[in-house]
Specification:
heterodimer; A: mainly alpha; 10 helices; elongated; B: about 400 residues; alpha+beta; 18-stranded mixed beta sheet; 3-stranded mixed beta sheet; 9 helices; 23 strands; about 30% helix
């Protein structure tokens, strides 16, 4: 007799009605995670911002075409990825961003100042290893550990099964570890340093 | 390092959510997780996280403005394209809007004409031709037919009435202290009415607007009908509703009017002494809005809605509720005068679950077990005293 009404549904209706405030609320809720998500696919911050702008503006312009059962969160991530990777946009860039190369905060960060030299060497080594990874491997690591997304969400974004995501994470970490352990001596030194 | 048991490696740790959690808490036993593997896992996490670029608040706001700007500009352009029609509609809308603000709703005028007699012993249903029906049940159920002409009371009794075709035929339900009622209106919206309350409503909703008037407390389960919004008017706060479940408490002897929204969305319209005449505020589910007419303030806070709506199921959950508040509610519900002997007790608070199917004394005993009070019964009166501490 009574229709079930949930918050998402009502919010969706406000979006469909074109209420500016609803778009502002949606942006406020997702800005941080979309920005960090966008940077997984391009290290050009301005390009990511442009794409986020277009994402929301087009969501407004074409709101009437949206199906009622569209999942907002899922929609935002998938469309932003598509936009950033679109050939019309700037070049696809999956290179791992490296703050040290850009000469930024790394050295002034008080937390890292007290760390022994050996650790930084190891971090450097990990970063070098990252550059050898495939695009998919970089994508999965960043989505999982930088954006902090759960497996099922990553699976939807990458269009693979949850199990494949887990396997991909496993294999990627394994590859990095093996690369690191080639230099056993370095590792033992690191191990000893960490014990102190 | 010499242990030959199978040991977990960095990839085992980082592909398992629970292990990552334990890694961050430093909770991985070294027998199973060699320190070197733990170090590598931690380093990988750290280097991925190190590269994270934070969206600065200033840039975030700039981008927000840019998006809103684009949307607004697009809206304006569209508006100009149909300016001829739009102006007409706008004018019409603002005229009717002003008109609606100024006029006192008919139902409110009707409400002020129906005096509530506090001496009522039974629930009273007052029909169109001033025909009064007494309902003796503690908790009565009333159901209107779709055309409003037939009223079913407690599944046994049926009464009929003449419903005018032009204009509304108002009916009134008066629920005295100690009684409750559940009413289903002609649009199939259901309302639980708490003790000491009065509800006025048309036997059949005619106009495009569904309006009811409430004094006291009621829980609404409004039937969804976007074209015909549902309004609950009280003496100083109007609530506009779409399909929704919510509770309103608007007793004349309470200083404030409070609304709790369980599901759906409502708008609160209240008097505002500014030039704009009245203010509107939206509510989202899970919120409690308290309107104080004396200060003309409306405060919204997040609450557990069950605490406010559970009375309809015969129990209440209280969380740090002041004793004087509890006593006012209980004395309404049971229609028994309860007196606080010591005003100091008024601010004592009680948290817990009270089963309203028990008698008033039983309920008060439950409270007495938790806080230092003594219940004294003399005839119809209940007095609450501070417990004398044994020396």
């Amino acid at each position: 007799m009574h229709k079930e009404v949930n918050i998402d549904y009502i919010f969706w209706k406000r979006l469909k009605a074109g209420e500016t405030r609803a778009f502002h609320e949606l942006y406020t809720q997702y800005a941080d995670i979309l920005f960090s998500f966008g940077l997984v696919y391009s290290k050009d911050q301005e390009h990511v911002k442009d794409c986020i702008h277009d994402l929301f503006f087009e969501l407004y312009k074409y709101r009437k075409n949206l199906a009622d059962n569209d999942h907002i969160r899922n929609y935002l991530f998938k469309s932003l990825k598509r936009k950033i990777q679109s050939p019309k946009g700037r070049k696809l860039n999956l290179v791992y961003t490296n703050k040290i190369e850009e000469g930024s905060a790394q050295k002034t960060n008080p937390a890292t100042e007290e760390e022994p030299e050996g650790l930084e060497d190891n971090l450097e080594k990990i970063k070098k290893t990252f550059r050898k990874l495939s695009d998919k491997q970089k994508e999965v690591l960043n989505l999982r550990f930088q954006v902090g997304m759960p497996y099922p969400e990553i699976a939807q974004i990458m269009d693979i099964s949850v199990e494949s995501v887990r396997t991909l994470v496993y294999r990627t970490v394994k590859a990095i570890r093996e690369e690191l352990q080639i230099d056993k001596k370095n590792l033992i030194m690191l191990y000893l340093l960490c014990k102190n | 390092m010499t242990n030959k048991n199978p040991k977990k490696k960095a990839e085992d740790i980082l592909s398992e959510d629970t292990l990552i959690e334990r890694l961050l808490k430093d909770d991985l036993p070294p027998e199973q997780f060699p320190e070197e593997e733990v170090v590598i896992a931690r380093e990988i996490l750290k280097s991925v996280d190190d590269d994270k670029i934070i969206f600065s608040p200033e840039h975030k706001e700039l981008l927000d403005n840019r998006i809103i700007d684009s949307i607004d500009r697009h809206k304006r352009n569209k508006l100009f394209a149909v300016s001829g029609i739009a102006a007409g509609i706008l004018l019409l809308v603002s005229l009717t809007f002003l008109f609606q603000m100024k006029r006192q709703p008919e139902i409110s005028r009707f409400a002020s004409a129906v005096a509530i007699q506090p001496g009522y012993e039974y629930t009273q249903l007052i029909l169109a031709d001033k025909k009064e029906v007494q309902i003796r049940a503690e908790e009565s159920k009333i159901k209107y037919s779709e055309n409003g002409a037939e009223v079913k009371i407690d599944t046994l009794k049926k009464v009929g009435q003449q419903v005018e075709t032009s204009g509304a035929t108002y009916n009134t339900l008066v629920v005295p202290y100690g009684k409750r009622a559940r009413i289903t209106l002609s649009d199939s919206s259901t309302i639980w009415i708490n003790s000491g309350s009065k509800l006025i409503y048309p036997a059949k909703f005619t106009k495009e607007k569904r309006e009811v008037y409430l004094e006291g407390e009621a829980m609404f389960y409004v039937h969804h009908d976007e074209k015909n919004p549902f309004y609950v008017l009280t003496h100083n706060l109007d609530v506009k509703v779409l399909g929704t479940i919510f509770n309103i408490s608007a007793y004349r002897d309470d200083q404030t009017v409070s609304t709790v929204l369980e599901q759906g969305s409502v708008e609160l319209h209240y008097d505002n002494r500014s030039i704009f005449g009245s203010s509107v505020e939206k509510m989202v589910p899970g919120m409690l809005a308290v309107y104080d007419p004396a200060k003309n303030t409306l405060l919204q806070t997040k609450v557990n809605t069950k605490d406010y709506t559970s009375w309809k199921d015969g129990y209440v959950i209280l969380e740090k509720c002041p004793l004087d508040d509890i006593i006012r509610r209980l004395s309404r519900y049971y229609n028994i005068p309860i007196e606080l002997d010591d005003q100091e007790l008024a601010h004592e608070t009680f948290s817990g679950y009270l089963d309203l199917r028990n008698s008033a004394t039983q309920v008060l005993d439950t409270i007495a077990e938790m806080i230092n009070i003594e219940i004294i019964r003399s005839g119809d009166q209940i007095k609450i005293k501070k417990k004398q501490k044994p020396v």
